[in-house]
Amino acid sequence: MHNPALSELYHDSSSGVCSQLRHTSTIHPRRPSVFDRHIERQAAVEQ
């Protein structure tokens, strides 16, 4: 079931998480799978 309010909330918070991950990945490199899992979760919430 799609919940627009939940999707918007998750999108806003995930944008912050992605931004922070990108910032810290320049300091401490992360495996690409960290980003892949995050994108998968975001897609699942938005369905």
Would you give an account of this structure?
The chain has 47 residues and is mostly helical. The protein has one domain. The protein is 83% helix and 0% strand. The protein has two helices and no strands. The protein has helices spanning 4-27, 32-46. The longest helix has 24 residues, at 4-27. The radius of gyration is 12 Å and the shape is elongated. The termini are close together. The mean pLDDT is 77.
SSE layout and pairings?
Layout: H1 4-27, H2 32-46
Helix pairs in contact: 1-2
Indicate the overall shape.
elongated
Helix segment tally: 2
Domain tally = 1
Mean pLDDT across all residues, rounded? 77
Radius of gyration: 12 Å
From N to C, what is the helix and strand string? HH
CA-CA gap between termini: 7 Å
Q: Helix amount, in percent?
A: over 70%
Structural class: mainly alpha
List keywords for this structure.
single chain, 47 residues, mainly alpha, 83% helix, 0% strand, elongated
How would you summarize this macromolecular structure in one to three sentences?
This protein has helices spanning 4-27, 32-46.
